[in-house]
């Protein structure tokens, strides 16, 4: 056998190996699937709309008496007693003053006696009518007289009741306008009574404030008593529609509950704070605030944010309105509660797969 035969066999096997090796490697590569890259975790926060804040307006005010009523007797006579002094707190129905009742009691006794006499006569004549001795025409005038006597008796009793002056409501006696032994006619003021169940505060509103403050039940207000620092919750009661003489102001009356332990008297100074609604911004697009780190800057200088939409990062162009500490105020084609990627936006690409996690949720799991 020639020595060249083994060598030629070796070269043949070598060529076969070189031909088969790529095929074997290719088959192995097809059997092994490439490893998937996991989606990037992105911490997100919901967009919050920026609502214009209401504005607080402050004005000086004064305590006013809610109801001041002059009390008078409904009958004439001589004042016998006045039972209260100025500053006395009284309750509804409490006696305040008394007239001399002598004349009214005499009238009442006389009316009662006459009524009894007429009723007795009527009883006798009805008996005679039943026996046929009297005709009905003789009894009818007496019946009318009995009715009139009853009215006179009731009127005399009412005059006795009206000789006592009582409080129509809970309040404070502000002023005594008469004294005992004075002879007064019907309607002569005797006492001035103030209602102390509520407190009223008057404010002079300038024209600019009257234009924008809601002059209705929606008005929010509070007052601070200057000398005591006590805060009062106030609400709208009424307002004038004509300016006050000598000034372009309109009178606003607020009402509230009086604080316990304090005597609020008319004329006391009050600092009044009114809430003016935020101005309407119909011509401006809605604005939102986002973390400052969420704002990205494009090469052309425009700003954008990354929104988490259906498991992907999506670019949203925005307008940067202003910066407030670590927050940015933005506007654009945005919606409230849209999830915004709060940080790491410089490493994202449009359409990149992400796994959105709320920042507050992630903080609670670590």
Number of helices: 5
- Broad structural category: alpha+beta
**What is the straight-line distance between the termini?**
80 Å
List low-pLDDT spans. Answer: 361-366
CATH architecture designation of the domain at 42-50 and 282-365:
Beta Barrel
Characterize the main sheet: 6 strands, antiparallel
Number of E strands: 23
> Considering DSSP H and I runs of 4 or more, what fraction of the residues is helical?
25-40%
What Rg is obtained from the alpha carbons, in whole angstroms? 48 Å
Lateral strand order in the biggest sheet: 2-17-21-20-19-18
Q: How large is the share of residues in beta strands?
A: 35-45%
Order of H and E elements:
HEEEEEEEHHEEEEEHEEEEEEEEEEEH
Report the CATH topology name of the domain at 42-50 and 282-365: conserved putative lor/sdh protein from methanococcus maripaludis s2 fold
Mean pLDDT: 84
Taken from the alpha-carbon principal axes, the silhouette is elongated
**CATH level-1 class of the domain at 42-50 and 282-365:** Mainly Beta
Q: What is the subunit organization of this protein?
A: single chain
Family: Belongs to the membrane fusion protein (MFP) (TC 8.A.1) family.
Keywords: Coiled coil, Signal
Pfam family, one: BSH_RND
Domain Multidrug resistance protein MdtA-like barrel-sandwich hybrid: 72-176
């Amino acid at each position: 056998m020639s020595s060249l035969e083994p060598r030629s066999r070796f070269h043949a096997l070598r060529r076969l190996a070189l031909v088969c090796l790529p095929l074997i490697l290719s088959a192995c590569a097809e059997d092994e699937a490439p490893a998937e890259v996991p989606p990037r975790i992105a911490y997100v926060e919901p967009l919050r709309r920026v609502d214009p804040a209401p504005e607080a307006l402050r004005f000086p005010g004064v305590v006013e008496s809610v109801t001041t009523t002059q009390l008078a007797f409904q009958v004439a006579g001589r004042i016998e007693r006045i039972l209260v002094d100025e500053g006395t707190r009284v309750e509804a129905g409490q006696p305040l003053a008394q007239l001399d009742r002598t004349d009214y009691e005499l009238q009442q006794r006389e009316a009662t006696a006459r009524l009894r006499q007429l009723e007795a006569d009527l009883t006798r004549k009805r008996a005679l009518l039943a026996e046929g001795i009297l005709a009905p025409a003789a009894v009818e005038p007496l019946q009318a007289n009995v009715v009139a006597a009853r009215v006179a008796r009731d009127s005399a009793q009412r005059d006795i009741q009206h000789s006592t002056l009582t409080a129509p409501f809970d309040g404070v006696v502000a002023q005594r306008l008469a004294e005992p032994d004075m002879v007064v006619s019907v309607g002569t003021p005797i006492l001035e009574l103030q209602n102390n169940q509520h407190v009223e505060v008057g404010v002079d509103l300038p024209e600019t404030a009257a234009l924008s403050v809601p002059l209705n039940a929606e008005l929010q207000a509070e007052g601070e008593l200057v000398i005591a620092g006590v805060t009062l919750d106030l609400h709208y009661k009424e307002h004038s529609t004509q300016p006050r003489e000598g000034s372009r102001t309109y009178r606003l009356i607020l009402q509230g509950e009086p604080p316990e332990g304090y005597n609020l008297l008319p004329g006391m100074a009050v600092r009044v704070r009114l809430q003016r609604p935020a101005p309407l911004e119909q011509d401006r697009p809605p604005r939102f605030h986002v973390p400052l780190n969420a704002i990205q800057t494009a090469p052309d200088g425009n700003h954008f944010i990354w929104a988490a939409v259906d498991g992907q990062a999506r670019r949203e162009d925005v307008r940067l309105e202003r910066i407030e500490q670590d927050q940015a105020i933005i506007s654009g084609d945005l919606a409230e509660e849209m999830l915004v990627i709060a940080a790491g936006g410089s490493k994202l690409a449009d359409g990149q797969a992400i796994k959105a996690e709320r920042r507050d949720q992630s903080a609670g799991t670590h």
